[in-house]
């Protein structure tokens, strides 16, 4: 009996990496998500958001952020493919989770959602800083807007923001327009100017500022106007995606169901835009949209089908690649007119835009430059909202062999003519000189 248990345990250890690594390039949305909470009450108060993820096939594992048993990986393999931090007041994570572990998790290509709130601790701020955003240093500060606030029955302190300044990208927010403003109440953040990968998805209005709403301003606020980001995203160079916001409340059922009227606007919406905004944004974060893959990279000489080991200068060649986009359920042909290929050696000698056949096949043809060496076919495709493609294939280019040059070069015809005319002239001169009396 003891031997059977040993065999069973060994089998589990062997299969564990395959059971745990649910993310697959073939099905990029088949994934398991760890949700860390301050309190299990958040599970019910934010149930609409969680149910939206579950309905799309995500397996959510809810745990308290200070649970001593939580871990992101085991035996060198990650147990989850995405992490949601809905624990804005946590001072220290439980188990083996620390800031460096979260950053390593993202560096390994996994996705992350961070929802902070007023009085966010240094732990959450440090994670956000590592991702390229900086929350207001004042721990009591909140975003205040006296012109773009949400109208309510009580005057309030104008910290309940109604914002409709969205990023203009159908890939990130979907093709359906978000008509209702999004409700936001929390802390603002700014983008690190040194990090070009961070984008503002929802911005504050020019009249907004970040300050303590319960005290008078004694010094100018550090964050003002449209420089304040309410919701930001990051797409890392390894295509991991991150969502950062300073409001946990915007995910709540209360904000989802609330009606909203923006100050100065006569239109009152029966329902805020939070549900549509966050649902569409979660589709992008979890790679249900904007996820590209490239397959079947081919190149060959014109008129042939086999890929050669090398090319000769001035050869005519053809290059092709198939590009597909994940639609949430299947791979669909990706259609664009801005995909380019470089024929590269130290610098691009040829840069060609690929034509597509509307079925995902991109192709072009060109002549190998009159330079020999080791070249690369390179496709570096980066477009707002899409995962980046980086394709590289090395190929040597040789010069003409001694017996492959043309016998008569057209450019040398004037020299040929000069030589033969000289010979004819010398013959006539000799004949006249010898036989003239």
Can you tell me about this structure?
The protein is α+β, with helices and mostly antiparallel strands. Helix content is 22%, strand content 30%. It has nine helices and 26 strands. The strands form seven sheets. An eight-stranded mixed β-sheet has the order 2-1-5-6-16-15-13-10, with helices on one face. Strands 17, 19, 20, 23 and 24 form a five-stranded antiparallel β-sheet that branches. Strands 18-26-25-21-22 form a five-stranded mixed β-sheet, with no helix packed on it. A hairpin with a 7-residue loop joins strand 25 and strand 26. The longest helix has 23 residues, at 413-435. The termini are far apart. Residues 6-23 have low confidence and may be disordered.
Give a summary of the structure in a few sentences:
This protein has 437 residues and is α+β, with helices and mostly antiparallel strands. It has helices at 2-20, 41-45, 47-55, 99-107, 122-130, 170-173, 253-257, 274-285, 413-435, and strands spanning 32-37, 59-64, 73-74, 77-78, 82-86, 111-115, 133-135, 142-144, 161-163, 165-166, 182-184, 189-191, 198-203, 209-211, 229-235, 241-245, 291-301, 311-312, 316-326, 331-333, 340-345, 347-353, 355-356, 361-367, 373-381, 389-398.
């Amino acid at each position: 009996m003891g031997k059977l248990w040993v065999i069973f345990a060994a089998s589990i250890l062997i299969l564990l990496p395959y059971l745990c690594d649910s993310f697959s390039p073939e099905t990029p949305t088949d994934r398991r998500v760890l949700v860390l909470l301050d309190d299990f009450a958040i599970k019910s108060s934010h149930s609409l958001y969680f149910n939206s993820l579950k309905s799309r096939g995500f397996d959510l594992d809810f745990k308290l952020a200070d649970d001593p048993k939580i871990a992101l990986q085991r035996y060198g393999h990650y147990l989850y493919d995405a992490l949601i931090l809905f624990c804005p007041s946590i001072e220290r994570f439980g188990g083996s989770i620390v800031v460096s572990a979260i950053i390593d998790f993202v560096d390994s290509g996994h996705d992350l959602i961070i929802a902070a709130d007023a009085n966010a601790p240094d732990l959450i701020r440090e994670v956000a800083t590592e991702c390229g955003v900086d929350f207001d240093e004042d721990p009591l500060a909140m975003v205040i807007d006296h012109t773009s606030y949400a109208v309510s029955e009580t005057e309030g302190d104008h910290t309940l923001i109604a914002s409709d300044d969205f990023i203009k990208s159908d890939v990130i927010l979907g093709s359906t327009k978000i008509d209702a403003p999004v409700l936001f109440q929390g802390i603002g953040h700014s983008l690190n100017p040194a990090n070009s990968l961070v984008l503002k998805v929802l911005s504050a209005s020019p009249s907004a500022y970040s300050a303590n709403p319960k005290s008078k301003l004694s010094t100018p606020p550090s964050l003002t106007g449209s420089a304040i980001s309410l919701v930001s995203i990051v797409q890392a160079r390894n295509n991991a995606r991150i969502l950062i916001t300073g409001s946990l409340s915007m995910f709540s059922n209360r904000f989802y169901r609330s009606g909203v009227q923006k100050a100065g606007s006569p239109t009152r919406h029966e329902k805020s835009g939070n549900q549509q905004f966050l649902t569409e944004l979660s589709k992008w974060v979890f790679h249900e949209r904007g996820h590209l893959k490239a397959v079947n990279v081919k190149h060959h000489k014109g008129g042939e089908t086999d890929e050669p080991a090398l090319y000769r200068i001035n050869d005519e060649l053809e290059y092709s690649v198939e590009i597909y986009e994940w639609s949430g359920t299947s791979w669909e042909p990706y259609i664009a007119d801005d995909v380019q290929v470089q024929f590269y050696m130290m610098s691009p000698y040829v840069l060609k835009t690929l034509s597509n056949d509307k079925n995902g096949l991109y192709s072009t043809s060109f002549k190998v430059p009159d330079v020999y060496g080791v070249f690369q076919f390179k496709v570096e495709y980066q477009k707002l909202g899409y995962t980046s493609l980086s394709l590289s294939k090395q190929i040597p280019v040789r010069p003409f062999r001694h017996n492959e040059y043309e016998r008569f070069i057209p450019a040398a015809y004037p020299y040929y003519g000069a030589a033969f005319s000289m010979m004819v002239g010398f013959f006539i001169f000799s004949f006249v000189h010898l036989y003239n009396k």
